[in-house]
Specification:
The chain is α/β, with parallel strands linked by helices. The protein contains seven helices and seven strands, in the order βαβααββαββαβαα. Strands 1, 2, 3, 4, 5, 6 and 7 form a seven-stranded mixed sheet that branches.
Length: 203
């Protein structure tokens, strides 16, 4: 794997997420992508009642830790996103019917999207970050929801919030307030600064 002068060292991404890999690829960063094996629902249950941003950060750390424990001195990046609407947290939909149910609930409301990331080396947490975006969903008709899922299912089944902002997702929203990378699923500018601090990316 070639490493550019802007990146003296490669790192490990504890994810196979297409959107997170696309962000890193667009920057020309060298990394290895290894999915973490974390029981997200169990961790969320343990943290029931905690703020969404704390849960997102804990999940990001857990994913990084799972991969870091078998990768020696490598820097490992974990990331996670959570959706909250009117105080209720939503996970990825379990079926097309579940996705439609989520979209009906989101209709006319504002999605709070929490994106977190963490860097680890071995058992050491090097950095944890978080950002939030607010996405105002327009009123969605049943006809729109059906047509949208006809076009986007099953891909959006892997997406918290039932949307891919880089695909047909913008059709859902009236306004989006927040960083574009956070909406894509990772607070990328914070991640880059953390990688610079660790000497992975050149200053």
């Amino acid at each position: 794997m070639s490493v550019s002068p802007l990146q003296p060292r490669s790192f490990v991404l504890a994810s196979k997420s297409a959107s997170r890999r696309a962000m890193l690829d667009a920057l020309g960063l060298a990394y290895e992508s290894i999915p973490a094996n974390v029981d997200e629902r169990a961790l969320e249950a343990e943290m029931e009642g905690a703020p969404a941003e704390e849960i997102a950060q804990a999940l990001a750390v857990a994913k990084a830790a799972d991969v870091a424990r078998t990768h020696g001195d490598a820097i490992v990046l974990g990331s996670d996103s959570l959706v909250e609407v009117e105080g209720r947290r939503f996970d990825k939909p379990s079926s097309r019917e579940d996705a439609a149910s989520h979209l009906r609930f989101f209709s006319g409301k504002t999605i709070q999207l929490h994106s977190a990331a963490a860097l680890m080396r071995g058992e050491q947490v090097l950095w944890v970050g978080h950002d939030r975006a607010a996405l105002s969903v327009r009123e969605l008709s049943e006809e729109f929801i059906a047509a949208y899922l006809d076009a986007e299912w099953p891909e959006v089944g892997y997406c918290v919030g039932v949307f891919r902002i880089e695909a047909l997702g913008p059709h859902l929203f009236e306004t989006i307030r927040g960083d574009q990378f956070t909406v894509l699923g990772m607070p990328l500018l914070q991640v880059l600064e953390a990688l610079r601090e660790e000497g992975v990316v050149a200053r």
